[in-house]
Write a structure and sequence with these properties.
Length: 84
């Protein structure tokens, strides 16, 4: 994982959860970790990583991920065995 993805991962695990992480940075970080991403209806995507599955909604119209989504993503990463 390159330095940019490591920084994104570290930001996901900061408390309180940030509300200004760009969703495209999260998706590229997930792919670099080996996640599979499948497009769903509308803004939904299904992410599979290390035997775990989660459904997320891409934020719109703004590209920033809200705090609730960051917390959900954090728990998904923990469940998948990923920590900074």
């Amino acid at each position: 994982m390159n330095a940019k993805y490591e920084k994104t991962l570290e930001r996901i695990f900061t408390n309180p959860a940030p509300a200004d992480i760009k969703w495209r940075d999260i998706e590229t970080m997930l792919v670099s970790l080996g996640a599979g991403i499948k497009e769903g209806r509308g803004s939904r995507i299904t992410v599979r990583l290390n035997g775990r599955r989660a459904v997320f909604h891409r934020p719109h119209p703004k590209p920033d991920t809200d705090k609730g989504a960051v917390k959900t993503l954090r728990q998904f990463l923990i469940d998948a065995g990923i920590k900074p």
